[in-house]
Prior knowledge:
globular, 13 helices, 3-stranded antiparallel beta sheet
Amino acid sequence: xxxxxxxxxxxxxxxxxxxxxxxxxxxxxxxxxxxxxxxxxxxxxxxxxxxxxxxxxxxxxxxxxxxxxxxxxxxxxxxxxxxxxxxxxxxxxxxxxxxxxxxxxxxxxxxxxxxxxxxxxxxxxxxxxxxxxxxxxxxxxxxxxxxxxxxxxxxxxxxxxxxxxxxxxxxxxxxxxxxxxxxxxxxxxxxxxxxxxxxxxxxxxxxxxxxxxxxxxxxxxxxxxxxxxxxxxxxxxxxxxxxxxxxxxxxxxxxxxxxxxxxxxxxxxxxxxxxxxxxxxxxxxxxxxxxxxxxxxxxxxxxxxxxxxxxxxxxxxxxxxxxxxxxxxxxxxxxxxxxxxxxxxxxxxxxxxxxxxxxxxxxxxxxxxxxxxxxxxxxxxxxxxxxxxxxxxxxxxx
Length: 398
Ligand SMILES: Cc1ncc(COP(=O)(O)O)c(C=O)c1O
């Protein structure tokens, strides 16, 4: 078996997924129009209409009211606004210094919380997860119950970007609310593949982004319940109810809404299709490499349908990634790489994996363009790639 292929196989949809053709068409059309949606003249009013229609479309997709949708530049900004803004808003005379979150969040949450600790005197409580990556509502209850009056905000992601664990968000929101604490969830990974209903979830804040569901990069939203009033991170022209200043990107907003609506229209069938492809991928990988370990919850309701995440004992994930890349297969280690030095995934470490297992892991994430051909391509080359990565690791070259 040789590691050669001419058809590129893209299995990194959790990093970013191709724009949907209807979103590209909507964006291209809108780029030809002039107008700042805050301007009062006809061109401005036209742009405003596009923004408000898009807001309504997104609100409908995500079970929210249009007035609850605050546009941002993406998931990172929405997470920063939620965590910092809600924390600051809760320093209204009372010393609510605690933030409760999990040890498996995306860095947009993790690092916002750490910054609040280091620069603002906050105290983080990091909820542990099980070896499947799941957060237990009882753990949240115990964390808040120690001193409910000191907890400013709780943030727990809807679905994990590395191992695909789908958290019991509405149960967690209910626990936070029992103690009167606002609850935020990062639904960036969930939004493309699961029915994300803001109202039904009970959350006070919910983060989504365009480029994980077939829209453009650089646009997202924080959905905010009435009554949740974060202190702004960006100050300026007072757009978005003064919560997020900055001229709105009409073409990107329109394309985001078109992509989200397209996604929602096919969600149930697409989730089923992706789960079947993912199950096939898992079967083929475990057949080719019997000592590989599937990380995260078992395939089923607790796992994103498009997620497969493995540890390959004796391999460096980065080496394996590059070997697969050379074979035309794009995937990810899912972990951060700082200055060329591979860091073991904080998610796998939090799930109890040791350093070696965490470093030898790889994520394959499927999305709307994924096919059986992609899955079979991995099945065909994974054994040889793992053998080579193991030889490289043994000779110190991994
Ligand atoms: C769970 C999660 N949150 C937040 C983000 C950041 O979103 P954006 O790339 O739109 O800033 C990502 C992106 O990888 C993510 O997976």
